[in-house]
Input
Amino acid sequence: MTETTAPITQDVMTIPRKLPEGPMNIVGLTRDKLREVLIENGTPEKQAKMRVNQIWQWVYQWGVRDFAEMTNLSKAYRADLAERFVIEIPEMVSKQVSADGTRKYLARIAGGHEVEVVYIPESDRGTLCISSQVGCTLTCSFCHTGTQKLVRNLTAGEIVGQVMMARDDLDEWPEPGQGTGENGPRLLSNIVLMGMGEPLYNFENVRDAMKIAMDGEGISLSRRRITLSTSGVVPEIAKTAQEIGCMLAVSFHATTDEVRDKLVPINRKWNIETLLDALREYPKASNSERITFEYVMLKDVNDSDEDARRLVQLIKGIPAKINLIPFNEWPGAPHQRSDWDRIEAFADIVYKAGYASPIRTPRGEDIMAACGQLKSATERARKSRREVEAEAGMG
Ligand code: SF4
Output
């Protein structure tokens, strides 16, 4: 197990956001922000709310990327919009499809950086695993992304844009005039913020993007079908309930501080006790909205019967479910997956203690799309992170 000395800094959360030069990309702007920029660019204030509704529907309900197609707007207004704004989402650079149907996309964003996005089809749902950072602020030892230094946060447009990119690939946009879901069952029905990056170290952009995804006049995904996974950024946990309202998952993975300090280094900043206290206070937790404790099964590291008993003891009183994740190996990984009978014995102890403890079926292993296997080639080059974020208009 590697000793990590990477500082767990705060500065990411305080970077002000400024929009780039040239035509503004409206993808990722909240309704209020869109209204503001329309008025700034000449839309009469009295009409602005209606224009926001109309544009919103074209972009987020019907997946239109060309103002000229927005036929309920006047030709002159459409032309004016096209002068001043663009409707851009990340570019799909590559797509790999696993034997089990899982799709892994490589998406290119501003500055030429790349992030990985994974679509997991199942009989009763289709889940998109999206990224919130290029690389990651943190260095969890079992995670491939953790070996990729943080390059920058994604903007709200680049986060919700991953959902739009996948819907394009799944050809899931209703025809203009059609309501969401009228064109058949939703292929992309769930979102998990479990891709590259720590979402709570990019709170504002993640919040705005998920608000857009939940908006009933657009992509219209229920908040209960969106799960944000955090490694334990305690100060931001309650805000997730208050400002996003989605489901919460925690990268827990260990039952002692000694082990969790190594597996999930943020534990040295907010240890198990502090994290559990925050989860006991989580405003949205209830028996119908349980917090998911993610637990990667690492051979001879955190998979003993004693660990299982300690785990159920620690989370007592928290409405919870436990997801056991057989470790998915990646080149150079310092861990091995627990033996299957060990995983089943662990699950049995947890189950007998009254917790649903499904063992997550590894998906997309043949294309390195399974949990913890994501990493893009983008490395933080010579440029400082401020320079890189300036490229994306966050500098
Ligand atoms: S598990 Fe999450 S927080 Fe930890 S290194 Fe990987 S992406 Fe970052």
